[in-house]
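Exam revision sheet. Question 4 asks you to relate a sequence to its structure. Input first:
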Amino acid sequence: MLKEFTPPKDADKEALKEEIKALREKLLAQQQLVRSSNLPVIVLVEGWAAAGKGSLINELINEIDPRFYNVVSPVSVPQAEARYPFLYPYACAIPENGKIMFYDSGWMEGAVRKFLRREITKKQYKELIRSSIEFERQLRDGGYLILKLFLHIEKEEQRDRLTALRENYETEWRVTEDDLWQHREYPLFRETYDEFMEETGDLIPWHVLDGSRKRLATRDALKLLVGLIDKGLEKGRYIGKPFKENFPLLNMPYLREIDLSPALEDKEYKKELKTLQDRLSELHNTIYRKRIPVILCYEGWDAAGKGGNIRRVARPLDPRGFDVIPIASPEPHELNRQYLWRFWTRLPRSGHFCIFDRTWYGRVMVERLEGFCTEDDWKRAYNEINEFERQLTDWGAVVLKFWIHIDQDTQLARFNDRQNTPEKQWKLTEEDWRNREKWPQYEEAIDEMLQKTSTENAPWFIIESNDKKYARIKTLKIVIEALEKACEERL
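Answer key, structure tokens:
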């Protein structure tokens, strides 16, 4: 794309000025329509160092209401954020419905620099490209309008601009060693940028702007943004259609086939519990030292024993190195973003545990059955979730998913026990009773979930929990086995 780039023809100065003014006025009017239509907009501005990315963004936001847009520079992540998945800073920054987010550089610059610094292999670089495509598609399918711009200047122009910045006492700080490195390796960067744009431009196209002529670049960027918003307002919020990728799925039994009779005697339980918790405590030290992130996902029937199971897993862990995240109904600011956003923002740092009590699988269970999303939304979610989990395991995370399983008679007995025990009554809600009435529908949804999302990299485990003691020991054994394997694989 860059090698074949042809700069646009010059325009009359006054005519260009009037065109920019008209486009800004239209963008200001559109901003209110974007807000009332709940359309989220992302403008990704990539480009060469000193090409004028910041100046271009400033020109785009010049006349619009600052309450309804934000500007982020997620490519310059602090050291703490470098311990998260590659897409973490970009996913955390996505805007709410009705707002515009401008990214001053983003996932292309992040991926290219990692690769050219040799921080990652060619294979890992290809994984980042794939993840970027998935990220963009998931946002588009969730109703986001996305504009991708690349501000281009030639090597000689870049040299002159960097020199001018460095010679000025007030601006020399703006030129980094990375910028100078990019200039020295200009042909290599151009080739790599081209490759990235070619591989990620089919779904959402890239637009290359001439960074050597500021006013023309401003006009062209405004025209593209106004056109994108016009199309979005005309067609309405886009909802993507379900599709299927061939993930390596594991064979999973149906819930009705599970034998729930396994049980443990109290003496045996206590002995095994201590042994397993001691081993997990040892492994936590190794996990931290080797910077392995661990994500444990708990789903299950109401009153199945998730809380008690989680406590036995968490108890031997260093409290500074884990979080338990209870997931309830989404808050308004969470509903106003793509549904995976609230999980991206809760991921652990490398070397830490994160235990989710309920997860992103609400999309294909409660949201599906209660009508909180469209049929296309929840059918599409199976593939989106598999992609999300693959991105986590590509990062190096151990991802284990537990379905805590009981039968209906056991659930009823536990409900009655909660109802009749004052200190437990807070655990039982009207919603629990309503969900119980929909047991067959939930069982059908759960079976489909298990069949479609138990992958080799992020498997499901059905935990028989009519006997809670047996369930806790089985879960601990699975966690320990997976962590031991991960520690052996990481040198």
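Marking note for examiners. The chain has a mean pLDDT of 95.
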